[in-house]
Amino acid sequence: MQVIYQIPRNSLTWLLVAVASVLAPHLSRTPFWLGIICVACICWRIQVYRGVWAFPNKYLKFFLVFMGTVGIYLHYGTFVGPPAGVALLIMAFAYKLLEIYTKRDAYVVTVLAYFVVATEFLFNQSIPMAVYSVFSLLAITASLIGLNQSQSHRKPWRTARLSGLILAQCVPLMLVLFILVPRIGPLWSLDFDAGGDSIGLSDTMSPGDFNNLTRSTSLAFRAKFEGNTPEPNQLYWRGLILYDFDGKTWSKGSAKLGEHQRNSELVYWPGDKRSAWFSEYNQDFSKQILATGDPESLKVFRYEVTLEPSDQTWLFGLDMPLSRQKGIGLSRDFRLLAKAPIDSVFRYQAESIVGINVDLDLPPWIKARALQLPEGTNYRALALAKRWRLRAGSDRGMIAKVLSHFNTQPFVYTLRTDKLGDNIVDDFLFDTQRGFCIHYAGSFSFLMRAAGIPARVVVGYLGGELNTLGDYLLVHQFDAHAWVEVWLEGEGWVRIDPTGAVAPERIESGIEQALAAENSFLDGVMFSALKYRDIAFINNLRLSVDYINMVWHERVLGYDSDLQNEFLVRLLGEVSPRRIAMALFLSGLLVMLLVSLLLFSQRSRKKTDPITLIYLKFCEKMSKAGITRMKGEGPDAFASRIETDYMQLGDSVTKITQAFSQLVYRDQSPEAEGEKQQRSQAEKKFKKMVREFSPHKLMR
Amino acid sequence: MPQFALWTKIKKKRAKIVSAWLDKRIPVSDRITLSHQKIFILPTQQGFNFVLVMIALFIGGVNYQNSLVLGMTFLLASLFMVSILHTFRNLSGVCFQAGHTEASFVGDFASFHVTLSREGERIYEAIQLEWRDCVPQVIDLIDETEHTARMLLPVTNRGIYNPGRIYVETRYPLGLFKAWSWVDLGVQCLVYPEPKKSVFTDINKHNFNINRDAGKIPVPEGNDDFDGLRKYKLGDPLRQIDWKAYARGRGLHTKTFVGYADETIWLDLDCVLEQGVEEGLSRLCYWVLKFSESGQNFGLRVGHEEVLPGVGRAHKIKCLEKLALFDRNKN
Asked: Is it the case that residue A207 has pLDDT exceeding 80?
C-alpha cells in the first residue's frame, strides 16, 4: 500500500473552492449528469480528507471513467471539438480529485484548473465572466501556494491574500504581453460554433414571423459612423432580399442568389477579377459620380459594424454598400456577405454612397424573379392591382396609389394582428387591415408585381438607438423591419417603405413610438432595462453598461492583428519585428524591475511599539528644551545625565524612565485578566506622566 | 568492470570540482547570509508542466482567435516570471548561524543546531533544510524573527564528524521554481565508539589491569563506604538518595560514599585487541560509561596515550574523547 500524500488543509480548502468555481460556469452547458458527477467528486474528496471514506478502488474508477466517456459520446456524438472536448476535460478533472495520492497529483489538478478556466472563454467572453474568472484564478493560485506552504500553516485567508498579491503583481507584465506580443492568425483552421441560441432574422418571411423578434431586447449589432450619424429615417440596414412568394411565405428563392454559392456571377469577393457584373457596376458607379460633377458632394457614409453572432452569413449595410475588407463579399443584389456563418462577434467596415442608382439595366433573369407571382391565389388583390395600374398610367403613379390607399383606408399598424387565411394578401388588404411591416411590405410587393413592376422584399433593421457616450448606434432585434425595393425604368432600384404610409412614427422615431397608442412595445417581456427607457437614470445606466461592453468587445476581445498594428503604429511610430522585440524586451524588463523593487525593497521600518512611541515623545520634549538624547544613549543613562546636569528635572525624569522600563521589560508571557488591567492602567499613567511633563515649567 | 570504475572515477572527480567551486563561491563560515551569488534557481518539473499548459493555451487562443484565452496565457506567463522573483526572494537575505552541537555515539544521532533568522519585515516561508540523512525540516519565519532547527544526523563512524554542506531549498510560493543553496557552517562534532556490552569477567580474564588492593586515601564521590548525607542536587544517582529520610519528610538527601584512591581499574585497549581495534574501543567505551555511572575510579590506556585514573563527568568526557580520536596508525 502506497503512502498517500495528504494535501495541506489550507491547500485542499482552496483547491475545492477553485474546482467548484472553475466547474460551475461549464455545468450550464454540459449534460446535467456531469454536474452530479462533479458535485459527488467534491463531496467524496472532502469525506476522504475527513477520513470518513476511502479513495475509490481502481475497478470503480475504471467503471466511472468508462461510463462517463460513453455518456459524453452519446450526448455529443463526437469527441472532437470544444464542447465535447471540454466536457471530457471536466470529467477527467473531477475524477482526478479522487486520485490525488502524491503531491505531484495535486499539482496536476491545480495546473489543469488554470486550463479549465481558460476553456470557459471559448463559450463566454463577457465582462462578468472575465471578472468571475479572476476569482477562480485567485482560488487556484491560493491552492498552489498552499501546496508549497509548510504543513503547519493554517491560515487560509493569509494564503488567499498572498495569492491576490502575486496575481496583482502579474497584471502589469500581462498587459505588456497582451499589447505587444504579435497576434498571429490561426495555425490551422478550426470551425467551431460556440453554440447558444442566436436569434435574428430568418431567411423566410411569413405573417407572424416577426412576433418573436419584436419582443426580443437582445442586440443585433452596433454601428459607429465616421462623422455624423445619419438621420433615423436613413438607417435602412439591408440584410437579405426575398424574391419568391408562394402565396403565404416570402423566401430568398431557390439557390439562384444563394448565400453559400461562391459563384463569382452572384457574389463578388474583393480581389476577384472575373466578376463581370461587378466591373459593370463599378463603371456605372464611376459614370454616375462623374455625372454629378463634384464627387465631393456625394454623400458617403463610412461605418463600422460589430455584429453579434447570428449564425447567418449576411451582414448589414445601408444602401448601397461596399466593403474593402477581406473576406466580405458583395452579392448581386448589393448586400454584404461573410464567407462563413457569423458564430462569434464580428466586426467589419463598410461604406455606403447615398443616391447612387443601381441596376439601371436590369438583367432579364433578375427581372423575371422580381415579377414572379404564385398562381391561383389572392385573386382580389391581383384584379385590384391590374385595375389600379391601368388607372394610374405610370409606375410612379401606381406606387402613389397603393401608398395613399394604405394611408387613407383604415389600416392599423399593430403587433396584435389577426390570423390570416390562405390568401394572405387578400385577407389582409380587404378584411383585417391590421398588421405590421411584413404585412405591408409583403402585400405592397405583391401589388407591385401584379401591376408588372419588378419588386422585392428587403428584410433588415430600421433605425437604432444612439448611445451618446461612445457616439454609436445600438440596433436591437426589435428594430427588425421589412420594406420593399421596386425597379423603375431609368432609376434602377428604389426603396419604398409602405409602413411609412400607415405609421410614419415607425420610420421617424422607431417602433416604440409607433406602438405607443396600443402600448404593446415589448409586451410580455418581464425584465429589461429597455422597457424603462423613459426613466432617465435606468436608461443612462443601461447605455453606460452597453458602452463599457462595446469598448470591451472592440478593444479587448477584438484586439487582433489589425487593431494591434494600428495601435502599435501610434505607439512606436513604425512597426517592425525589431522594434516590437525591443519594446517587448524593454517594457517587460521595466515592469519586472518594478515588481522586484517592490519585493526586495527592505521594508525595515519596524512597527514601533506604542510605549516606545510615548517615550520618544518625552525625548522630543526634552530636545525642545535643549537636552537631546545622544545616539546609543539608553533611557537610564539619559536619565542619570539629566539628573546630574539639571537638578530640577531629576525627579520627574527618573519617574518617567522607571515607568517606561517597567512597561517595556515586563514579563512577556501571557497574562491573566487581572494583570492585563494592571498593565493597561500603568500604561495610562505613563502616558499621562509624559503628557503633563513640561521641562520648561520645571526649569524655570 | 573497468568502464564502471572509470565512470565512478569521473563522478568522483566531478564531485571534487563542484565542491571546490562551491568552497570558493560559498565559503565556510559559521554565519552565512544568503545573497544572490549564493542562490541558484531553476524551474521544477511542475514549472515545465505549467509551461506546457501555457503553450497549449496559446495555441488554443491563436487558433480560436480568442483574446481572453490569450490574455489568460499571458497572465500565466507573468505568473511564471513573477514567481521567479518570489522564490528567489524567499531565500535571499536569510541568515544561517551555527548553534551548539552535541557529541554522540556511533549508531546514534549527532545533534546540530542551526538558527535561521531574518531582518526587517521580510517574511520567509517553507524553507526546507536537508542535511545528509537527517529528516528534512521545513522552516517558516513568519511571526518569529528567528528559528532554531535541531538537526539529528545519524553517525556511523568514530572520530570527528563533519557533515558538510546543508542543502537549503525553497519552492515557495508556487512550486514552479526551486531556489537552492549549499550552506556550510563549518560545524563538526565528536563521535564516540558505539558502546558494546561485554561481561566484565570476560574482560578480566583477558588480563584487564585491575588493582583491587584497598587503598588508604579516601576519595569523595566514590562508592565504597558511606560517608554522610548532603542536600540533593539535580543529577545525583537515584539509588544514592536517602529514601528513608525522604519518607520521613526530611526532604531529599543524597548519601555520599567515599572511594579509595588505590582501588583503581585500568581499562587498557591492548587487553581487548583480539576482536579488532574498533570492537575493543567499543567495549572500552561501554565500561567507561558504566564506571562513570557508578562512580568507579578508573584509568584508561589506549595505545601510548593514557588518562590517569579519576572519576566524574570531566574525566568521562576526556576518556570518551581519547576513544573517539584514537588513531591506530599514529600509535
From this structure: no
What 3 state SS string does A152-191 have?
A: CCCCHHHHHHHHHHHHHHHHHHHHHHHHHCCCCCCCCCCC
Nearest-10 Cα torsion for A413, A417, A421, A427: -20
- Comparing CA positions, the residue from B170, B115, B100, B113 lying closest to residue B138 is B170
Among B242, B81, B299, B286, CA closest to B177: B81
Q: In this complex, which of A137, A153, A177 lies closest to B77 when CB atoms are compared?
A: A177
Residue holding cell 565512478? Answer: B8
Which string of DSSP letters, residue by residue, matches B118-173? --TT--EEEEEEE-TTSPPEEEEESSSSEEEEEEEEE--SSEEE---PEEEEE-TT
Q: How far apart are alpha carbons A567 and A180 in whole angstroms? A: 10
Residue of higher predicted confidence among A216 and B129: B129
- A245: amino acid identity, one letter: F
B140–A153 C-beta distance less than 8 A: yes
Beta bridge partners of B268: B301
Q: Which of A41, A427, A437, A476 is catalytic?
A: A437
pLDDT over threshold 50, residue A345: yes
A591-596 CB contacts, 8 Å cutoff, 24+ apart: A591/A172, A591/A173, A591/A176, A592/A173, A592/B81, A592/B82, A592/B85, A594/A172, A595/A169, A595/A172, A595/A173, A595/B82, A595/B85, A596/B85
Tell me, yes or no, if A107 comes closer than 8 A to chain B by beta carbon: yes
Q: Is B36 near chain A, with CB under 8 Å?
A: no
Q: How far is B166 from chain A (nearest CA, A)?
A: 19
Q: Residues A115-142: what's their mean pLDDT?
A: 92
- Counting one residue from A and one from B, how many pairs have CB atoms under 8 Å apart? 156
Provide the pLDDT confidence category of residue A198 given band limits of 50, 70 and 90.
low
Cell of A75: 450526448
Arithmetic mean of pLDDT, A3-18: 82
DSSP for A431-458, please give it. Answer: II-EE-HHHHHHHHHHHHHHTT--EEEE
Number of Cβ atoms within 10 Å of the Cβ of B327: 10
Establish if B173 touches chain A: CB-CB under 8 angstroms.
yes
User: Which of B107, B110, B268, B264 minimizes the C-alpha distance to B195?
Assistant: B107
Q: Which among B49, B70, B171 has CB closest to A148?
A: B171
- Looking at the complex, does the CB of residue A89 fall below 8 Å from at least one CB of chain B? no
Average pLDDT of span B128-153: 88
Residue A670 neighbours by CB distance under 10 Å? 7
Looking at the partner chain, which of A115, A152, A596 has a beta carbon nearest the beta carbon of B85?
A: A596
Residue found by looking up cell 422584399 in the block? A457
For residue B175, list chain A residues with Cβ-Cβ distance below 8 A: 107, 144, 147-148
A388 touches chain B (CB under 8 A): no
CATH fold for domain A366-463+480-532? C8orf32 fold (3.10.620)
Name every chain A residue with its beta carbon within 8 A of the beta carbon of B89: 599-600
Taking only the tens place, the pLDDT of each residue in B259-313 is 554 556 778 887 777 778 888 888 889 888 888 888 878 888 888 888 888 888 8
Q: What is the mean pLDDT of chain B?
A: 83
User: What are the boundaries of each domain within chain A?
Assistant: 9-149, 218-236+257-363, 366-463+480-532, 610-699
Among B36, B45, B74, B121, the residue to mutate for chain A (most A Cβ within 10 A): B74
Contacts of A82 in chain B (CB under 8 A): 64
CA distance A668 to A664: 9
- Is B176's pLDDT higher than 90? yes
Task: Give yes or no: A41 in active site.
Answer: no
**Given this model, what pLDDT does residue B174 score?**
92
Distance from CA of A107 to the nearest CA of B (A): 7
Q: Which domains does chain B have, with CATH numbers?
A: 24-191 (2.60.40), 200-325 (no CATH)
